[in-house]
TrEMBL record:
Pfam families given in the database record: SKI
Lineage: Bacteria, Bacillati, Bacillota, Bacilli, Bacillales
Top-level lineage group: Bacteria
Species of origin: Sporosarcina koreensis
Keywords noted in UniProt: Amino-acid biosynthesis, Aromatic amino acid biosynthesis, ATP-binding, Cytoplasm, Kinase, Magnesium, Metal-binding, Nucleotide-binding, Transferase
Main localization category: cytoplasm
Cofactor: binding comment: Binds 1 Mg(2+) ion per subunit.
Protein name: Shikimate kinase
């Protein structure tokens, strides 16, 4: 069995669902943002300030290149699926689930959060355009598209777990 990667826009629930999935399946859970934060000893906004967005993107790719753990759950950062190399690594080393959420839900969840530098520097309109631009790349990367609208975190977690178990036993 391979790794499980969760991809999708900021606020689609990758971190919240990844954590629950790890507990439910009794697998180690890694959140790329947290891992990179711990490695650098800086918050995500501090990394953006110090090294720029491009510096942060390099750290994401380095993380994927060097990560050693086998069967585990990984919540990616919202921009990870934008790089071709990242998409290739994820598809080669794991199963990729795209959490599809409406922009309306996303905006409600993230608009007031100060820990996401891209939200801080963007208007609602700019963020919606970024969401539209990124969507085809999440789809390109994913083995599975998971609809999250009108579903609780636990329902989504259960659904993904059932897909993983089905593949494992199939
Ligand atoms: N389906 C859902 N139902 C209820 N709350 C949700 C749902 N999905 C996400 N949330 C909530 O929205 C917030 C943002 O979710 P989360 O941090 O998991 O997003 P993310 O995809 O990891 O974002 P990022 O790419 O910025 O790391 C959290 O408080 C989470 O609990
Ligand atoms: O969508 C993005 O580009 C980001 C999402 C977050 O997970 C963090 O990785 C960071 O805030 C950038
Ligand atoms: Mg997250």
């Amino acid at each position: 069995m391979k790794r499980v990667y969760l991809v999708g826009f900021m606020g689609s629930g990758k971190s919240a669902i990844g954590k629950r999935l790890g507990t439910l399946l009794n697998l180690p859970f890694y959140d790329m943002d947290t891992e990179i934060s711990n490695q650098t000893g800086m918050t995500i906004p501090q990394i953006f300030e110090t090294y720029g967005e491009e510096g942060f993107r390099e750290m994401e790719t380095e993380f994927l290149r060097n990560f050693q753990e086998g069967y585990c759950i990984i919540a990616t950062g919202g921009g990870v699926a934008m790089r071709e190399e990242n998409r290739k690594i994820m598809r080669r080393t794991g199963l990729v689930f795209f959490l599809n959420s409406t922009f309306r839900d996303i905006w409600r969840r993230i608009s007031t959060d100060i820990n996401r530098p891209i939200v801080q520097r963007s208007t609602r309109h700019e963020l919606e355009r970024l969401y539209q631009k990124r969507k085809p790349l999440y789809l390109q990367c994913a083995h599975f598209k998971v609809e999250t609208a009108n579903r609780t975190l636990n329902e989504i977690t259960q659904y993904i777990a059932s897909q993983i178990i089905r593949l494992k036993n199939g």
